[in-house]
């Protein structure tokens, strides 16, 4: 037992992993260039074959008229909301209290765009149609995140989603999809990306979540909307002379993994079942609706951390690289199933969970 | 003579070139990865060995306490000005009418940061100490661009620069350097980068101008300033999970070309002499002070364009990929000397200029 090792460093030493696609190393990018011709021209400030072809491909996949590649979702989404607010003449949008823009972007939406958010629902549950109806304030745009990442990746029923979309359309409220993990929910809904996107006026998707690319995002909608997003991309400093390192790798990993979303989803369901058999352990949601879920442990962070570090060392199998405290006596982590899960044999999975059950049973009994 | 060819496509077919480092193709990035170990970890949201080491290296080279890597100069400079404006409690900055922020950034500074520019000097000349003294308005920050790109890459005398710096310091005005082409002016001033940067509170440098990298920028200053820039980078959407494609290539080409700035500068001086011997042709500045200059032709754009296209086809030597009209009877282009110039023999240079002299003499005489 090594006491001065962090869960992150212990995880990094594991060969097998329940979650993720493997290490984020520079080989991830190098691989995507192996079959490329080095004479291929760079994109130039948003123009050129590379970027235009990928944009067209994604617009088609997402069932929209047009698409624009952005270096990040942070940039793409602020810009989407700004365009809708300018269009409606009101700098107010509604979203969930745990929306990425509210908790991970240093208030860029407020400080750069002067847009005020109206928070709907509470931190522990999804936005409902009633929340939208009872928002109490005029808004230009509603942002929905599917799945709602910070509560384990939850999804509304499809009928509820359709009802929210219809209501917004009727009320003249623009509906924007934070689809950072859109590809990952297609198996659960049993819909195409285009079917889901047709409920929204604008959609952002990411290429480094389930797709596992290096970085990059697509923003899509009608042509008027996407054309308006380009000068904003320039204003944000995202209209780089060359974005091809992100475009090439996004396209490469999209092709490699878009067909595996069902596999990741089924893996997440199996894994959640296993975790729910462990003492002091519950997954959120209980039955995953995408490749992701959260695991809540009813034990102090330091204790769970040590149990996991020991487990990684004994088995060479990693579960997660970090735990976050909820309070003194509980903590949680996030699991996103990717390529690594399929490398594990049933025997390895049984071994790791029988050990985990033992270790968690012993917590607090020393 | 091919009539339906653009100057850009004709230039792209040339093997030899008076300007630039060669084509911007994806091989430029691939080359920089050849000797890298693919297990090397990615940077992660601004943290990690890669990004931190390069930031430290650049801070040292530029003689500042600390540095932050940005995907673009557009992002870095707006943020620098915003920090100084917040510090001074006044959203007003002064810069040249042809400043990058004024003409190439879709008014990001105004629309994202609400910062109002005070334009100093006029479009045809550099900002002087008198312009700064007679600005007529309070400002938080003065931005100087060295060299002033849009007027051919001109520079003030070093003594004037020192006087402006001293005046700003005395008046409590922050001084920011747009050093997109800072490395390129070191030979003319005969100063180190650190000596020049010591006159400024904050400095931005680019890695895809003279350095010829893929993209990327460094913003540098004291630690308090650079720490404050990081949440702004996140707000702009530039705090990417992985910036290593730009960092690795910036570092690679910095090492490859930082020692060649004298060579590029001398090349520009030689080339400008040649152009000034051509009819209807004058360079701005007459004697270059960096690797760059503009060429003004006293003839209509279409005529000069056709003469150049013919020249490229006859010699296989390219001069520029584009011309811009000044008015109906004159046009100009920009030359930046890089690695390609050194590939030309004296004989090739004599041939191309004797042909150019002939073609320009014949203009309008058909």
UniProtKB/TrEMBL annotation, chains A, B:
UniProt entry keywords in alphabetical sequence: Pyridoxal phosphate
Domain Aromatic amino acid beta-eliminating lyase/threonine aldolase, first and last residues per copy: 41-292
Tagged with keyword Metal-binding: no
Pfam (any one): Beta_elim_lyase
Gene Ontology terms for molecular function: L-allo-threonine aldolase activity
GO BP annotations listed: glycine biosynthetic process; L-threonine catabolic process
InterPro entries recorded: ArAA_b-elim_lyase/Thr_aldolase (IPR001597), PyrdxlP-dep_Trfase (IPR015424), PyrdxlP-dep_Trfase_major (IPR015421), PyrdxlP-dep_Trfase_small (IPR015422)
The keyword NAD appears for this protein: no
Listed cofactors: pyridoxal 5'-phosphate
GO cellular component: cytosol
Family of the protein in this entry: Belongs to the threonine aldolase family.
UniProt-recorded name of the protein: Low specificity L-threonine aldolase
């Amino acid at each position: 037992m090594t006491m001065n090792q962090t869960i992150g460093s212990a995880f990094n030493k594991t060969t097998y992993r329940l979650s993720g696609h493997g290490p984020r190393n520079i080989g991830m990018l190098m691989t995507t260039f192996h079959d490329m011709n080095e004479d291929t021209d760079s994109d130039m400030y948003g123009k050129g074959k590379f970027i235009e072809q990928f944009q067209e491909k994604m617009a088609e996949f997402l069932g929209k008229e047009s698409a624009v590649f952005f270096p990040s979702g942070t940039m793409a989404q602020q810009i989407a909301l700004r365009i809708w607010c300018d269009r409606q003449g009101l700098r107010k949008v509604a979203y969930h209290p745990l929306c990425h823009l509210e908790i991970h972007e240093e208030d860029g939406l407020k400080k750069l765009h002067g847009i005020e958010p109206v928070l709907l629902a509470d931190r522990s549950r999804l936005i409902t149609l009633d929340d939208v109806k009872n928002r109490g304030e005029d808004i230009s745009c509603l942002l929905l995140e599917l799945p709602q990442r910070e509560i384990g990746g939850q999804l509304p029923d499809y009928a509820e989603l359709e009802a929210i979309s219809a209501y917004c359309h009727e009320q003249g409220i623009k509906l924007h999809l934070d689809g950072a993990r859109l590809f990952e929910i297609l198996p659960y809904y049993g819909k195409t990306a285009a079917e889901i996107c047709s409920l929204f006026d604008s959609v952002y998707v990411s290429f480094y979540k389930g797709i596992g690319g290096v970085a990059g995002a697509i923003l899509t909608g009608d042509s008027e909307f996407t054309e308006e997003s380009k000068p904003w991309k320039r204003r944000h400093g995202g209209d780089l002379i060359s974005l091809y390192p992100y475009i090439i790798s996004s396209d490469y990993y999209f092709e490699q993994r878009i067909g595996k979303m069902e596999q990741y989803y089924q893996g997440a369901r199996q894994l959640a079942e296993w975790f729910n058999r462990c003492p002091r352990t519950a997954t959120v949601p209980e039955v995953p609706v995408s490749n992701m879920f959260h695991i809540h442990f009813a034990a102090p962070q330091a204790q769970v951390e040590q149990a996991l570090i020991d487990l990684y060392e004994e088995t060479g199998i990693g579960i997660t690289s970090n735990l976050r405290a909820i309070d003194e006596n509980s903590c949680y982590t996030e699991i996103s199933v990717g390529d690594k899960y399929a490398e594990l044999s049933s025997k390895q999975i049984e071994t790791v969970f029988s050990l985990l059950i033992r270790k968690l049973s012993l917590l607090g009994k020393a």
